[in-house]
Write a structure and sequence with these properties.
Strand 1 and strand 2 form a beta hairpin. The N and C termini lie close together (about 10 Å). The chain is built from six helices and 15 strands. The N terminus is likely disordered. The chain has two domains: about 100 residues, 2-Layer Sandwich (Alpha-Beta Plaits), CATH 3.30.70; about 130 residues, 2-Layer Sandwich (Pseudouridine synthase), CATH 3.30.2350.
């Protein structure tokens, strides 16, 4: 099974291929995988399905699914650089660094200039060590960090990882909101970079919205909605099953 340049599912290769999905808001990456896997099962097609790089529930945009034999190539796609666009709200923080938890610690942003914000963003470019946030899917002693965070627990010894911020561009400033575009390496948490930007500016900040627009050479323009892909799967003949 393959996907053409328009993101349409075809039957040319029963060995599987990559599906470009525009992940909806509030869906987990695992929700998308389950939906597509169930669609294959309902169509009488046996397909392994996995995703190539998690998107948080509060983020939308490009999620690549690997099906069939292509699941063996997931690690290669996960290693590709990614580009995101979104909005950071300055002057307030949240425990999760995004909209999952309530705002706290309000500060004035009236003194900030656009050039100050752009300079702070540029200062975050390059290689750096980043500690995963507590509200993340990283495993710790058999549990996801976000499971512990939701119980009010903290894991100070979270292991930092090296990431690279290739470009941190500020597209527009309408305080307290800042629209940005980020080109980053594998493993970078955009929520943490939003928090770091607010910290460098001395006012705090959190990730207000986020959309992934590309993974390597794969772009959101070629992605399809979950419902469109499900409909394409329904049209397949189950005689193509492996």
């Amino acid at each position: 099974m393959m996907i053409d340049k328009r993101g349409e599912v075809s039957e040319r290769d029963a060995g599987g291929d990559f599906l470009l999905v525009d992940k909806p808001l509030d869906w987990t990456s695992f929700d998308v995988v389950a939906k597509i896997r169930n669609a294959y099962n309902a169509a009488g097609l046996q397909r392994k399905v996995g995703h190539c790089g998690t998107l948080d529930p509060r983020a939308t945009g490009l999620l690549i699914l690997a099906t069939g034999k292509k699941t063996k190539q997931i690690s290669g796609l996960e290693a590709l650089d990614k580009v995101y666009e979104g909005v950071i709200k300055l002057g307030v923080m949240t425990e999760s660094h995004d909209t999952e938890t309530p705002e706290q610690s309000s500060s004035s942003v009236s003194h900030l200039l656009a050039e100050d914000i752009r300079s702070a963003a540029v200062s975050l470019e390059g290689k750096q060590m980043q500690k995963p946030p507590m509200h993340s899917a990283v495993w710790h002693k058999g549990k996801r960090l976000y499971e512990l965070a939701r119980k009010g627990e903290q894991v100070p010894e979270r292991k930092s990882r090296e990431i690279t911020v290739n470009h941190f561009d500020i597209l527009a400033v309408e305080l307290p909101f800042v629209r940005f575009r980020l080109d980053v390496s594998k493993g970078a948490y955009i929520r943490v970079l939003a928090h770091d930007l607010g910290k460098r500016l001395g006012v705090g900040g959190y990730l207000y919205s986020l959309r992934r627009v590309s993974i390597g050479a794969f772009g959101i323009a070629d992605a399809k909605s979950v419902s469109d892909i499900v409909e394409s799967i329904k049209k397949q003949d189950n005689r193509t099953a492996e």
